[in-house]
Amino acid sequence: MIVFEDVYFSYGTRSVLKGLTFKVKESERVAILGGSGEGKTTILKLIVGLLKPDSGRILIDGEDITLKEEDELMDIRKKFSIVFQDGALFDSLNVKENVAFCLREYTKMSEEEIEQKVRELLRIVGIEEAIYYMPDELSGGMHRRVAIARSLAVTKPKMFLYDEATTGLDPINAENICQLINELSKDGTGHIIVTHKLVDALRVAERFIFLKDGRIVFDGNIVELKESQYPDLVIFKKELQYVI
Ligand SMILES: Nc1ncnc2c1ncn2[C@@H]1O[C@H](COP(=O)(O)OP(=O)(O)OP(=O)(O)O)[C@@H](O)[C@H]1O
Ligand SMILES: [Mg+2]
User: How far apart are the CA of 36 and the centre of ligand 1, in A?
Assistant: First the structure.
């Protein structure tokens, strides 16, 4: 369970989050939506302790991570598989080496075990054939898949966190990535996807949280979303008529 209690956060004098309170259960499939610069990526970084709030508390499975030191945070991070928006691959390494990177870093696997594990992960994300491709030979969709495989390499997460997993992809690739996200959560593992595309959020989420000016202005399911009269949701809801 992720709990935010009245969380405030600013970068220097720039106030980004102004009193966020919400709870997300491990098995939930949630989309956090909002315009560019609203603080979506910041929220994911706070969840895994890469940033600390100015005030308020963040609890992960009942533990207050705002009080934890860097070495204690490693155990928290292992609960999550996180694919960052700028989750760039290492340009000079092929797909295999990109996915194997954390395995080499954090485990004592043999070369053979690493190869096996990398192939297994690439199979899960559907691009085993690209194992020896270099990053510049990958399409945008393949690139995302490799980033997802890499995030899965070290641990089986209790929850997936995706930052703009479909942004910049053509509609077909975006839909494929959404399918993959749903596939990975089929066993009941939940996910939080951060996006500004409601169409993609609708494909993978059952709960929608909208951010505006550092605050949550909507938190509810699809029925509540359709009924909401909040003006800033109107632009998002225009998309709804095409997908539902
Ligand atoms: N390291 C940083 N230093 C200073 N300001 C930052 C930093 N990172 C983000 N910001 C600012 O904080 C605000 C929130 O950033 P954040 O990346 O969380 O937004 P976002 O909702 O993820 O946006 P996008 O949809 O464009 O990815 C933005 O105005 C951004 O300019
Ligand atoms: Mg972002």
Answer: 8
